[in-house]
Design a protein that fits this description.
This protein is an alpha+beta fold. It folds into two domains: 2-34 and 230-332, Serine Threonine Protein Phosphatase 5, Tetratricopeptide repeat (Alpha Horseshoe); 46-227, Double Stranded RNA Binding Domain, CATH 3.30.160. Helix content is 39%, strand content 26%. It has helices at residues 61-64, 69-90, 121-131, 207-224, 243-253, 257-267, 273-289, 293-306, 310-332, and strands spanning 2-5, 16-19, 24-33, 46-50, 102-106, 135-148, 152-154, 159-175, 184-198, 229-238. Strands 1, 4, 5, 6, 7, 8 and 9 form a seven-stranded mixed β-sheet that branches. It has a three-stranded antiparallel β-sheet with strand order 2-3-10. α6 runs antiparallel to α7 (273-289) and α8 (293-306) runs antiparallel to α9. It starts with a strand and ends in a 6-residue tail after the last helix.
């Protein structure tokens, strides 16, 4: 059995309403966020360039001391191919047509001099013109270290156990023809651990398996930066105050948000600013769940002007952020903003 783990949290996305007190609850749901890398609106053709130095400059001295030129070349091929394949898997999205078909280029470097420097103007001009590109994704360099523990028998697991640690640092850049500097630079420095257990000694992942899986994972994560992604958000819903607010709480507990919204709208007629602010705030959450961000922002502003409450003010800021990112998200998805 093979296990992979790392030093990061994994979020389980769900839709749940749970009472944290009699006066308010939290609702959790998924929201679509724009991709971290935002291309120009007229983009049609994207290139992927591997300009990293050859592996003799990429492996740590302890990792390359027993390898000849052939071994280094094999490792470099495994890593670069799986970074590319992982990237291709990560950027998959039916809605983003310009990432469906990418031109693959390779211009390797033979040393690490100036490896932190972006491509210069002439190099960019040549690459863009020769390949008729609108954007270029460049893997600038990578370095890696692979270590394996001694095999030992674990008497709790009743298995032989060994562990690989896979460390990799990569720099990626995205260029466009009309910009003298990259529009995006991303550096990843990560360690993955691969744990093997086997009832018989010798049935383990090999170093080659770890190279393939590790570089594929990091390539995939970079590819995900190029497409919109779902993330979990938490919002407060007020339950106490007016009779309508209390009645609406039972509807939200049952997932009947439209019925709850009808009661919140009735509360807007109250003379009490605090109750009105709670109703506006809850309506803002309702419209956000319905993905009507402009209306959610309008409700959030109305709530914030009536009550200086921390939850309400924070929600207003969140809606400002989502409204600003909405145009970028729609442009990425080639949807017109109404």
């Amino acid at each position: 059995m093979h296990k992979i783990y790392r030093n990061s949290w994994i979020l389980v996305i769900s839709f749940l309403l749970c009472a944290c007190s009699s006066s308010k609850s939290f609702v959790y749901f998924e929201a679509l966020q724009p991709a971290d890398v935002s291309y120009p609106s007229d983009i049609r053709k994207v290139g992927y360039l591997n300009r990293s130095p050859l592996s003799i400059h990429s492996l740590t001295p302890s990792n390359r001391k027993n390898l000849d030129a052939t071994g280094l070349s094999i490792i470099d091929t495994i890593v670069c191919n799986n970074l590319k394949e992982g990237f291709l898997e990560g950027r998959k999205s039916k809605e983003i047509s310009y990432l469906d078909s990418i031109v693959f280029l390779e211009e390797r470097r033979y040393d690490t001099i100036g490896r932190e420097n972006p491509l210069d103007g002439y190099e960019l001009w040549r690459i863009f013109n020769e390949n008729k590109l609108d954007a270029l994704i460049s893997m600038e360099y990578y370095s890696l270290e692979l270590n394996k523990s001694f095999t030992y028998y674990n008497y709790e697991l009743l298995d032989y156990v060994e562990e690989f640690s896979f460390f990799m640092e990569i720099v990626w850049r995205v260029y466009t023809p009309n910009s003298s500097m990259p529009i995006d630079t991303f550096r990843t420095s990560d360690t993955l651990y691969f744990l093997n257990q086997s009832s018989r000694e010798g049935e383990y992942l090999s170093a080659t398996d770890v190279l393939e899986k590790g570089s594929g994972i990091l390539g995939y994560e970079y590819g995900r930066r190029h497409v919109p992604y779902w993330t979990e958000v938490a919002r407060v819903v007020f339950r106490g105050g007016s009779k309508e607010l209390r009645e609406a709480a039972s509807y939200t507990d049952e997932g009947k948000w439209e019925k709850a919204a009808e009661l919140w709208k009735q509360t807007l007629e109250y003379p009490d600013d605090e109750s009105v602010a709670k109703a506006y705030h809850n309506l803002s959450v309702y419209y956000e769940i319905e993905d009507d961000i402009p209306m959610a922002y309008e409700m959030a502003v109305a709530a914030a002007t009536r009550w200086d409450n921390t939850f309400i003010q924070n929600h207003k800021k969140a809606m400002e952020t989502r409204l600003k990112s909405r145009e970028r998200l729609f442009r990425q998805l080639d949807i017109s903003v109404n």
